Amino acid sequence: MKKRIPGLFLGLMMSVSILSGCDNQAGTPAPSTSAVQPASAPVEQTAPAEKTPKYVFLFIGDGMSHVQVNAAQVYTGNNKSGEVAMKNLNFTKFPVAGVATTYDSTSFCPDSASTATSISCGVKTHSGVIGLNVDKTTKPQSITEKLKAAGMKIGIVSSVTINHATPAAFYAHIASRNDYYEIAEQLANSNFDYFGGGAISEPTGKDKTKPDVTETIKSKGYKVVNTKNDILALNSSSGKVYAVNPVLQDSGSIPYAIDTKADDLTLSDYVKKGIDVLDNEKGFFMMCESGKIDWACHANDALSTITDTLAFEKAIQVAVDFADKHPDDTLILVTGDHETGGMTIGYAATGYNTAFDILGRQKMSYIAFDSLITDMKKNNPKLTLNDVLPVIKENFGLLAPSDPDAKIEANKAYTLTDYEFEKLESGFAESMKPTDKRTKNPETDLLYSTYDPLSVTLTHIINNKAGIGWTSYAHTGTPVPVYAMGVGAEQFGGSYDNTDIFKKLISVCGL
What we know:
Strand 5 (223-225), helix 8 and strand 6 form a beta-alpha-beta unit. The chain folds into 2 domains: 55-292 and 325-343 and 474-508, Alkaline Phosphatase, subunit A; 351-469, no CATH class. Mean pLDDT is 91; it is low at 1-46. The strands form 3 sheets. Strands 5-6-4-3-7-1-8-13-2-14 form a 10-stranded mixed β-sheet, with helices on both faces. Strands 9-12 form a two-stranded antiparallel sheet. Helix 2 packs across helix 11, helix 3 runs parallel beside helix 17 (499-508) and helix 6 packs parallel to helix 7. Helix content is 35%, strand content 12%. It has 511 residues and is of the alpha/beta class.
């Protein structure tokens, strides 16, 4: 008998043919047959603005489009009947709003390398390519390089690894985003003033045989610090700085906001320190990326997406507070590079209803839960689902149908249906297998992708109960919002392409 494709992920399957060419973190999709304006064409520039900002903040929520923003507003809002209201995020209240298309020269589902390059350099290029034209050879000058040459100090902040695609697009020019070692070498040679956040991917190269690139960075005059006290002590006299978060998670990134402890440094701390380090008479440009919004969306983990978006808002508030003190000299931009996951508010099984309060039962990110289950496996090779159910109840608030608390009226919303419990059983069975022994077929690819089958099943279930759906584990072609306040903000209203963000910055900054 042919196995039925679970209805829980029907929307995902319906869209797979559309998104099959999309990038997932580092892949390169097949070229699109549609016409694209050559990336090597001269950049059209408007006349320089009369008033130019002394301080420019560019915030990029990786993977963040309108739904990620709105989901955070719904989660922090009020879902009481008759009193339904969102709690607006600070940047959604900026006086100017626009929308930008995100396609690149190879796909309408672009990757972070090409979209960040569009923003930093004003050109279209291939997915996977950083800071190069569509010929993968010629190097357009980035906004950061132009502003550095004009005398400004430059800061690059990211919650993920500092040589990941988005931050790299603001200081590197390279044909492959996967050449992490070479990208880090370009960081060392950039002469930019402040790098902060995540660690370096592959610091000794892919084969781990090269000299530690951190030493190269130090040799170029950078002060590399990785303790909380040393980072908090940074100031305008510190010189060139690379501040690495003391606590790292998930391939060298700052932990998800949901996993952050009270005394941990956060993205907002790196923006504060960036202001301290970069402050000078000629001004500065700071790009701050919230990279784990994207990573959470790839994993279809709605609450981790939301909480990292809220942490992003706090980082933006640091810039807003700074702008309040320098209202005639500051420009703040907030945007995304692309959308990830095809996130939706609204799910087939919940109709017109949402119940985002259910998400509040989740206590950790999918990656932290993976680590917890891995430790349980090590301690008990014969681990059963019954052993894990109390941990699921504690960290996701989901109750097995047989759980005594499932009989209590107030907890019915959190009780798994028989269908959901079957999905949980299947996910657990796959999770217990060695990675190379797990079932691989079109159905399991849609159910789990490359993620742990148990954790991704749990996030799908709790998301769907809340009224959230996903269509992909990759990127989508959805346009992204652009929010602006301050000097020159009026230029960023309307609908345009992501390459125009660069062009508008050129104009606003008088370059």
